[in-house]
Amino acid sequence: MNEAVPVPDEELVARAAAGDHGAFDTLVRRHTARMYRVALRITGSASEAEDVVQEAWLSAWRALPRFRYESAVSTWLYRVTTNGALGQVRRRKPTVPLDEGDAGVVPGPEGQVVSAEQVGAVLRAIAELDVGQRIPLILREFEGMTYDEVAEVLEVSVPALRARLHRARVALLAKLGDNFRPGER
Amino acid sequence: MSEDPRDDPRWEQVRAAASRPVPTPPGLVERVLRSVNGVRGKHPIAPLDLPSAGGKTQVSERALVLMTRKLAAEIGRDLGGVHVSAVALEGEVVQVLVTIRFGVEAALADVLRRRLGAALTGQLGSAPPAINVHVVDVHPD
Q1: What Rg do the C-alpha atoms of chain A give, in angstroms?
Q2: What's the pLDDT score for residue A3?
Q3: β-bridge mates for residue A158, sequence order
Q4: E strand or H helix at A164, and its extent?
Q5: CB spacing of B85 vs A50 below 8 angstroms
Q6: C-alpha span between B117 and A157 (Å, rounded)
Q7: Nearest-neighbour CA in chain B from A70: distance (Å)
Q8: Domains (range + CATH), chain B
């Protein structure tokens, strides 16, 4: 399918529900990278994140006829991904610590200022948060989603989300407290 | 600590972590599409006839692939380090593509195949089609 003029997600869903395989494939190509990133940041494991993404797409495909267009397609997909990642974390037998190498994170342009160890420590601290705090934190601070979007994905009110996010940020800083000092480079 | 944790100087570390790019694993989109294609099937509605004692069991290709995928994923988790990438029915054979964690013996693929066959027999109440398990990738974690 030609993506030079992007077809809106909602139209792709409608076409896919009507049996257009190419439309669904376009959705897969458009959203998989972000879904993987979200799953990876929640699970901290590349292989588990891939499992989550695979299952999320199969769930989405099966749910196509029931999609009600009451929320954005992307919101729906991230809800499926988030729920899948949550289930993956809860099913996990031993704890899999998030390691920067495992997470597949590569250095960015600010690498001269913030060391890879410091970034890794942040990711490990996030992985230690309760998933109820970890998930909104990832969606808001790492994925840059708006409060409204995160609230819709998690199916909570915006005030409840803001309160949960504040607690998550405080908890994260407390965990970082052992590893960082202001101005440390 | 300031009232808004984001005003704390340490929050810069969080912003830096958030700004690091996360590469998508090579081939992930293709593996997803292969999985979706496997579930769509060539004849998603037409039933497969599986012989069983005193008659036959009919199951659609779509149902068989989804059932296989779910069971294989559960067995893979139980074995540890085995992840299902895609499942498809090709000809008369169920093809299961898996990735294994580095250090996991590839022989586990055969254990998965045998346990999957037994689990499918239990679910279907009759012998499933032949099953092939292919190790297609190795994960570092």
Answers
A1: 18
A2: 57
A3: none
A4: helix A158-176
A5: yes
A6: 46
A7: 25
A8: 23-139 (3.30.300.20)
Domain parsing of chain A, residue ranges? 1-96, 103-185
The CATH code of the domain at A103-185 is 1.10.10.10
How many CB pairs (< 8 A) connect A and B? Answer: 140
For residue B131, which amino acid is it? I
* pLDDT tens digits, one per residue of A3-49: 578 999 999 999 999 999 999 999 999 999 999 999 999 998 888 89
Q: Cα angle vertex A49, ends B137, B14, to 5°?
A: 125
DSSP for A112-138 reads: GTS-HHHHHHHHHHHHHS-HHHHHHHI
Cβ contact A173:B1 at 8 Å: yes
Q: Pick the closest to residue B13 from A175, A132, A38, A166 (CA basis).
A: A175
The one-letter amino acid code at A117 reads: E
Please indicate whether, in this complex, the C-beta atoms of A36 and B22 are within 8 angstroms of each other. Answer: yes
Q: What is the DSSP letter of B127?
A: P
Q: Give B59-116 pLDDT, tens digit per residue.
A: 888 889 889 999 999 999 899 888 888 888 888 899 999 988 888 887 889 999 999 9
- ipTM computed for the complex: 0.81
Residue linked to tokens 């250095």: A107
A-contacting residues in B 69-98 (Cβ below 8 Å): 69, 73, 77, 81, 83-86
Q: Rounded to two decimals, what is the model's pTM?
A: 0.79
pLDDT at B104: 82
Map tokens 């690498």 to a residue.
A111
Which of A172, A116, A163 is closest to A142 using CA atoms?
A: A172
Provide the CATH number for the domain formed by A1-96 in this structure.
1.10.1740.10
